[in-house]
Amino acid sequence: MTHSEPRAGHSAARGLSDKSIRNLFIFPTIAFLIIFNIFPLLFSLYTSFTDFRASTNAPANWVGLENYSYLLTNEFIWRNFTITAKYVLISVSGQVIVGFGLALLLNRYMPFKGLITTLLLLPMMLSMAVVGLFWKLLYDPNFGIINHSLGLGKFEWLANPDMALWAVAITDIWMWSPFVMLLSLAGLSAVPKHLYEAAEIDRAGTFYTFFRITLPLVAPILMIAIIFRTMEAFKTFDLAYILSSQPTTELIAIRLYKMAFLEWQTGLSSAFAYIVLVMVVGITMIYVKYLNKVKER
Amino acid sequence: MAEIEIRNIGKFFGPVEVLKDVSMTIADGEFVVMLGESGCGKTTTLRSIAGLESVTSGQILIDGAEVQDKKASDRDIAFVFQSFSLYPHMSVYENIAFPLRAVRMNTSDREAAVKEVADILQIGPLLNRKPSALSGGDMQRVAIGRALVRRPKALLMDEPIGALDAKLREQMRAEIKRLHISRGSTSVYVTHDQIEAMSLADRIVIMNDGILQQIGAPEEVYLRPANLFVAQFVGSPVMNVTDVALSGDARVVIGGNEQGFQFPGQVVSHLNGAPLSLGIRPEAVLLSHDAAHGAIEVETTNVEPLGSHDIVDVRVGDTVLRSRTEAGFIKSEGQKVWVGLDPLQAHFFDRDSGQALRGTN
């Protein structure tokens, strides 16, 4: 930046100075950030303490912590949290098992490895809405290929309150396991080959080597994958919204959407969004703390 | 403890033949050093013995049993890597205990074994540290400790101190020798450093281009090199090698100097007239200030003072011979001196095959 100052005078003759060009690039971004991120953030913080409804012209009344106390004591809301927690657990652990497993399989010599890896990454590159619509067809009890190939007859996946959440989670696992695989693959290939040779010389078996050498050395990068996937799963909306309308798949993001844009409880939903934000930040902090501990080892 | 025998092993990496018909026997308790330039096949041979590399042909026997098709973990051989290969996420204790835990030794035996090795290697105070907090020398002590702790049949070392600085290398060399004497384990050691090889080995194996050149005790390899490669590889400064002709009256004539050096008849009597190369170590190139019998008057071309001794270059005909003299014997280049050769320390080689030509004595 500083070295551009002396030249500013000369370039002014040619047109815009370096400084104006710099500002021209930066100001739109800052304006965009303020209008679409910072203002809504502050505005929603304010509305979370009011009874504001965006659908009416009525002025917002300050209600203090009433929205928060209502939400935190409402058992229906806790049901949404429980559903979300279950969803996060199933979906993220499924992605870790499938993704890491695939990475282990790919982390050795095989023909067409590059092609196979690329093909495995495809689900991750699709749009959530497209994946949702595809899988709705795949799960269809009458002509869906899943029931057909598993021989399940007319088994209901999405209309079955007990299965719907699993169905959504399975779709999410299909879509995002490649992400965990990609990071795990990077972690696995970073484990020096000579450590495996040392372990072989030390007479360590396959499982012992895996649990004592591979896993601890891949743990930090696997942890990063888990952090990303947990945060994403926590705020899942589109996939669950498209696939199922069961109350058992009503994740907090869906509840929040309904509260804000179907019921028009703007103030209450703002408070709800802040509670979710605090929870996500809290969970992430726990992970990051654990990640640092793993990295120290 | 074990005897290791290698029978005619060959190894290809793709189209490249890296080991060509290598055979040797390493006796129980012997310390054998494999010496050669990088890429000569010494490390591949060592890794083949350990089972980290499979051989394309030939057999490897440990205590008489063929092991070439067995996994490394089934050969009961320890290996010290040049890169140390310590497990970075484990403490020193866990690193040394790893081979014992891998075979589920019980805790009290394990602790006793680790403690014993830590005492021998004087790394007791480091047991709780991580490898990243260790110096190079300590890392190598831990790596050796991990190799010794399970009392393997044989200990293989791949340039274990090559990554250390010169002073530490000297110290670790002495330590490895002391350790070998006290434990008496069969050891195979790979290095490209001939001083390491000479000082550690019971026998030295010299390799070049995947071919075993000579096996012998350090002094044998030094005094009776089997061929030109060994002659020039072992010894510092390098042995003088020059093309010579032998005249009828047992004079060894260097090109460009007709006078030649008079050799005793019996020293050259076995040479049958094939084209010859003469190899002579700098300490056998004798310089004097006065005309000695059979010496040639020459001029010095370079003097390298090395403290304990000097290396002086003299031009004889078309060839420069390097001579090792006492410090300060020759003051400067361009000085007139008389040079003679010690016939008993002269080596003759077949110029075409490079093989040493020796009499029956």
SSE diagram, text form:
The complex is a heterodimer of chains A (297) and B (361).
Chain A: H1 5-14, H2 18-47, H3 66-73, H4 75-106, H5 113-125, H6 128-138, H7 145-150, H8 164-189, H9 193-201, H10 206-234, H11 238-243, H12 252-262, H13 266-296
Helix pairs in contact in A: 2-13, 4-8, 4-10, 5-8, 8-10, 10-13, 12-13
Chain B: E1 4-13, E2 16-26, E3 31-35, H1 42-50, E4 57-62, E5 65-66, E6 77-80, H2 92-102, H3 107-121, H4 136-148, E7 154-158, H5 166-183, E8 186-191, H6 194-200, E9 203-208, E10 211-216, H7 218-223, H8 228-233, E11 240-246, E12 251-254, E13 261-262, H9 265-268, E14 276-280, E15 285-288, E16 296-305, E17 309-316, E18 319-326, E19 336-341, E20 346-350, E21 356-357
Parallel strand pairs in B: 3-8, 3-9, 6-7, 7-8
Antiparallel strand pairs in B: 1-2, 1-4, 4-5, 9-10, 11-12, 11-14, 12-13, 14-20, 15-19, 16-17, 16-19, 17-18, 20-21
**Helical segment tally of chain B?**
9
Number of domain units of chain B: 2
**Radius of gyration from the alpha-carbon trace of chain A, in angstroms:** 25 Å
Mean pLDDT of chain A: 90
- Give the fraction of residues assigned to helices of chain B: 10-25%
Strand order of the largest sheet of chain B: 6-7-8-3-9-10
Q: What is the CA-based Rg of chain B, rounded?
A: 25 Å
How would you sum up the major sheet of chain B? 6 strands, mixed
Structural class of chain B comes to: alpha+beta
Average pLDDT, all residues of chain B = 92
Tally of extended strands of chain B?
Answer: 21
Count all strands of chain A and give the number. 0
Transmembrane segments (chain A): 24-46, 87-107, 114-135, 163-188, 209-228, 271-291
Organism (chain A): Shimia abyssi
Membrane topology (chain A): Multi-pass membrane protein
GO cellular component, one term (chain A): plasma membrane
